UniProtKB/TrEMBL annotation:
The gene is Polr3e. One of its GO terms (cellular component) is RNA polymerase III complex. One of its GO terms (biological process) is tRNA transcription by RNA polymerase III. Residues 146-169 are annotated as: Disordered. InterPro entries: RNA_pol_III_Rpc5 (IPR006886), RPC5_C (IPR045576). Pfam families: RPC5, RPC5_C. Residues 444-689 form the DNA-directed RNA polymerase III subunit RPC5 C-terminal domain. The lineage of its organism: Eukaryota, Metazoa, Chordata, Craniata, Vertebrata. It comes from the Eukaryota. This is RPC5 polymerase. Residues 146-155 have a biased composition (Basic and acidic residues). It comes from Grantiella picta.
Amino acid sequence: MANEEDDPIIQEIDVFLARSLLEKLYLFQYPIRPASMTYDDVTHLSAKIKPKQQKVELEMAIDTLNPNYCRSKGEQIALNVDGTCADETSTYSSKLMDKQTFCSSQAASNVSRYAAAVYKKGELHLTPLHGILQLRPSFTYLDKADAKHREREAANEGGDSSQDEAEDDVKQITVRFSRPETEQARQRRVQSYEFLQKRQAEEHWVHLHYYGLKDSRSEHERQYLFSQGHGLAENTELIKSPSEYLMMLMPPSVEEENDKPMAPSNVLSMAQLRTLPLADQIKILMKNVKVMPFANLMSLLGSGTDPTAVLRCVQQVALLVQGNWVVKSDVLYPKDTSSPHSGVPAEVLCRGRDFVMWKFTQDRWVVRKEVAAVTKLCPEDVKDFLEHMSVARINKGWEFMLPYDEDFVKKHPDIVQRQQMLWMGIQAKLEKVYNLLKEHLTPKKQEAQSAHPLLVSGEQRVNMAKAKVKQNYGQLEKEFQKQKAEMKSNDPSAKAGVPNIRIKEEPVSVEEPMDTSAHEGLNNGLVNGLHLAQGSSEPVNGHLPGGCIDRVAQELKAFVSSTFKKQFVLTLSELKRLFNLHLASLPPGHTLFSGISDKMLQDMVLDTGCKQILVPFPPQTAASPDELKVYALWEAGDTYDQHRQVLLEIFSKNYRVRRNVIQNQLSQECGEDLNKQEVDRVLKVSFCSLW
C-alpha cells in the first residue's frame, strides 16, 4: 500500500488498435544525414521494393547548393563513374554527384511485438508494424566506376588491332558435360549462399511513387493510423481479463522453440531405435558411427540383448578390422547411387573403400597419396573414406582411430577366423581389379609404432607353433602310453607278442602350413587359421590325432574332386584361393579347420587323378611360385578328354602357342578337321578357369 501511495496514477489514457494499415506499415530507419542533407530539402527521386524479401531501395537527392557540399569531390566522383561522355546511361547526368542510393536490410526478424503509436486528444492509437528496415548507403556507383576503368584499359591495350586480326585469334574452348545430380547434392546446392543470392536477384523490383511529407495524399494516408471506430464493441481485443492481458504482453516463447535445431531425418532417438528389430538397430548404429568396438555396440543395444544374435547380425553390415567392427561399404554406398563429389558410381566407391579397410587390416597407418594412386579416385572421395575410420597425424599419415581390441579377439576366435577368410576373398578381388604390386601388399614398418602382442612377425609365429606342437606331442605320447598299458592288461597275448614297444621319437616337423593369405599380418595372432589360446587337443600345423586323419582326408578329397570337375586346369595359387573361400563357407569347428599345409593339398590333388603340367614359363616372369605350379585333371570322363590331353601336352612344351598350331595338332592327333569355332570351344571347356 505504501508503494502505491508513492506512485499515484496521474492520468488514464484510452488505447485503440488501428487495423487499416495492418500488414502494410513499415518503419524505415535512416542513417544520420550529413550536413548537406536535411529533413526539409531531401527529395526522393525514386523508390522500389521486393515484397517477398522486404527489401527497399530509395534514391534521394543531395542539395548541391548547400555550403557544406564539396563540389570538387562531387565532380570527381561523377567523372570516375560516367567518364567524359554524358548520355542516357550516365548515372549522374549533371556531371555532379547529386543523388545517393540507400538499400535496406531487416533490423529484426520478428516484429510482431512492435507497433507505431499516435497520441491525439488523450487517446493512444496503435498500428502493428509489418517490418522494420534499416537503410544504408549503397556504393554500387563505385563498382560502375571500376568497370568503366577496366573497359578503358582494355580499349587502350587493343590499340589499332584490325578486324582481321581479331578474327584470326582462335581460342580453345573446353566442353564439359554435367553429371546427374543426386538428391543430396541438390539439397546442398539449394541451401548454398550462391543459390540464395540468385533466387533473391530473380525477384523483380516493384517501382513505387513517393509522396512528400506535406503532400495531400500523405495527409490522407496518415489518417489510417487512427482507429476508425471509437466504440468499445469494435475493440474487443483490448477487453481482456488480467491473465489474458498478461499472456498477450508476454506470450510463450515460440521463437525459441522454432530456433532449436531439428534432428536429421535419418537419426532416431534411442527410445525409437529400440522399437526396431535387432538387425535394423545394428544397421542404423553402424551406419552412423561407422567404427565401433563390440563392447560399445552391446552397451548401446541395452541390457538383455543376446550377444550371439548381435554377432550374427553385425557380420551382415560390418567387417572386422583390428578387432573393431567397421560398417561395410555397400551399406554406406547403396546400389544406383553415386559420389556427391565426383559422380563416380557406388560400385567404384565400394571397391576404393574396401581397399582402405583392407590396408588397415595390414597396418595401423595408411598414406593418402598411396590410396589415391591405387584407386584413381578424386581426393575428396579418398578423404571421406579415411575420415570414416582413421585420424590424420601430421607427417605420419592416417592412423586407425580405435586401438586393437584384444579382448574381442581372445573371446571370439571363430568369428575372427571367419572374418579373415572373408578378407582373403576381398584381397583376391582387389588384386585383380587394381593389379596390386608387392609393395602394396607389404605393410610399411613404422618406427614409432609399438608392436601389439597379437600382431606378431612370421618368425615369432613359427616359434610359437613349434612350442605348441612339442606340447601336443608330449600329451599325445602320454595318451599312447596309457592306451598301450590298458591293451597289455586286457590282452595277455599282446604282452607276449609285442614285448618291448617303443615310440620312435622323430624330430618335430616344422613343415610350414598352407599360406592362406597374401601377407602374414592378416592372421593377427592366428596360426594357420587357429587362435593360439585354443586347447591343446586341437591339431596344429597338420599334426592331427589319429582318429581325425581319415575325416580330414575325405573332406579334402571331396573338395579337390568337385573343384577340378568344374575347372579342369588350376594353378596352385587359384586352388588355394578357392579353398579359402570354401573354408569361409563352413561352420566353425569343421574338421578342415585343423590346418592344411601346401604339401597335403598338392598330394591330394595328385591322388585324385590330376597331373602337374610343367609349363616352361620364361625365367623373367613376375608370377609367384604358386602361380607357376599348374595342375590339370587328366581324365574327366567327357568327350573332350582326348582334346584336353593333347592341349596339355602342347603347353608342357611351350607356354605360348598360336591358335593355328593348336588347330593343326588337334586335327592330327584326334583325326578330326576342327574349324576355328570348334577349337575355341575346346579351349574354353578345357581352360575355363584361365580363359
